[in-house]
Specification:
Elements (H helix, E strand, L loop, with lengths): L2 H16 L6 E7 L2 H8 L1 H8 L2 E7 L1 H13 L7 E4 L3 H7 L20 H6 L1 E2 L2 E2 L2 E13 H6 L10 H11 L7 E4 L9 H11 L16 H17 L9 H9 L3 E7 L3 H4 L11 E5 L12 E7 L7 H11 L2 H11 L10 H5 L1 H4 L4 H10 L23 H16 L5 H18 L4
Parallel strand pairs: 1-2, 1-3, 7-8
Antiparallel strand pairs: 3-10, 4-5, 6-8, 6-9, 6-10
Helix pairs in contact: 1-3, 18-19
């Protein structure tokens, strides 16, 4: 439903309300990322247009994953809409836990969703979640500090260059860290980052027999390089920093480089929030010359859990929040740089959006991540920063905890990898993969 049509609907609904009808309320679980917070600020427009009230449950990323997973697996029925991603959607859709989004209106134009996003949010060709925004990951860096260091950022740099640049930009007296990266435990937090990074070092989670590969050289090289660089040039306590912590550091001018979600570009370049808004450049996530960049592919998407009593209202909200009309609404209010990126083909064909400095780099990053070919050597799974099997989230959360403990100096890298190898193989054997 377009914004114009929803305004027509509002008139009819207000007349119904005058005769005593009670407005429906839908409950939405979402992550505390900036674009979701922004969406909540526009919810009154949706309510005014439709008569549907919205109740938000806004959670930190790791907590959100736990809450929605528990709710959907136990059929708890707490939420009418869940914010989930490319990992959960195909699995939950296959299990019959989500309502298919195969009956969205013609006006919504589902064919406009970027193929990479639609594919990752579908099962057997049926869409089960609509992308609010899509992302890859890329380098965001301080152009002034790079220039001061006498270096020039390549469009597609190597990890060796990044480490050199990070060391050159670090100024402990001025509280400037050369690089800020996720070390926080959680499969979708630090676990996602180190997995994407490991792809560029030639690592992978499983061999073709579903055996863990943490006892192999590429994983040791990845963690050794990461910890060495972060100890040299990263912020204190990086082992507990995730997306939001690093965003805050970068906006405060305390990071020379940050490699993270492309969606963050609008926040670091927004002068209302960022002290370095006019000094940010962008580049592809690093590589080691082995043919894979260390960028991921993800969408935060809205899905309707099966069993909701308010399926029609939930779908109405999803059409509103993930529509081109919503994009136009944000653009008119806050500028094109602040619209939800990475979800629709038409956005990248829009001449106004093409003027946004990070638009092309975001699209290039999204297009360069291939879930069906993410590792240097052949692997048995689909996914870039995750393996799309039901057991992965639990295994990877435990593995990421071991890695974070190594970053914090609580155990050696060798100890962390040995524990990761054992717990992963135990879990895969218990699940019947081996």
């Amino acid at each position: 439903m377009s914004l114009k049509n929803t305004l027509y609907a509002a008139t009819a609904l207000s007349l119904v309300g005058a005769f005593g009808a009670v407005a429906e309320t839908i409950t939405i679980a979402t992550v505390n990322n900036g674009d979701m917070i922004r969406m909540q600020g526009y919810t009154d427009k949706f309510t005014a247009a439709t008569g549907i009230d919205v109740e938000w449950v806004t959670l930190e990323e790791n907590v959100l994953r736990q809450r929605v997973t528990t709710d959907i697996t136990t059929k708890g029925g707490q939420f009418d809409i869940m914010t989930i991603g490319m990992y959960e959607t195909p699995i939950w859709g296959a299990n019959g836990w989500l309502v298919a989004l195969d009956d969205l209106s013609a006006e919504y134009n589902a064919a406009d969703i970027l193929p990479a996003m639609a594919g990752g949010l579908s099962h057997d060709g049926t869409l089960y979640a609509a992308p609010f925004y899509g992302e890859s990951s890329m380098i965001m860096y301080r152009t002034d500090l790079m220039e001061k260091a006498g270096l020039e950022m390549p469009k597609s740099p190597t990890w060796d260059f990044i480490r050199q640049a990070a060391a050159a930009m670090t100024d402990r007296d001025a509280e400037i860290n050369g690089i800020c990266l996720r070390g926080k435990a959680g499969w979708g937090e630090g676990g996602a980052f180190i997995t994407a990074m490991s792809n560029s070092f030639g690592a992978q989670w499983f061999d073709m027999d579903w055996g863990a590969t943490f006892d192999q050289e590429p994983w040791k090289n990845t963690l050794t390089f990461f910890k060495g660089m972060m100890d040299e040039s990263g912020p204190a306590g990086y082992a507990t920093n995730g997306f939001n912590e690093n965003l805050s550091l970068f906006q405060q001018g305390k990071c020379g480089m940050w490699i993270d979600a492309t969606v963050a570009a609008s926040f670091v370049t927004n002068p209302d929030d960022s002290t370095v808004a006019d000094k940010v450049g962008f580049a592809l996530a690093p590589n080691t010359g082995m043919g894979k960049n260390s960028n991921w592919l993800w969408a935060w998407a809205l899905a309707v859990p099966a069993g909701t009593q308010k399926e029609a209202e939930a779908k109405q909200f999803i059409e509103w929040a993930t529509s081109t009309d919503y994009i136009d609404l944000v653009a008119a209010s806050e500028g094109w740089a602040n619209v939800p990126p990475g979800a629709r083909t038409s956005l990248y064909e829009n001449p106004e959006y093409q003027k946004v400095p990070f638009a092309q780099m975001t699209l290039d990053s999204i297009l360069s991540a291939d879930p069906n070919d993410s590792t240097v050597n052949e692997s048995p799974y689909v996914g870039v920063q995750f393996a799309a099997i039901p057991e992965f989230a639990g295994i990877a959360t435990e593995v990421s905890q071991e890695f974070s403990a190594a970053y914090a100096g609580q155990q050696t890298i060798e100890e962390a990898l040995a524990k990761a190898q054992a717990l992963t193989n135990d879990a895969m054997e218990a699940a019947g993969y081996r």
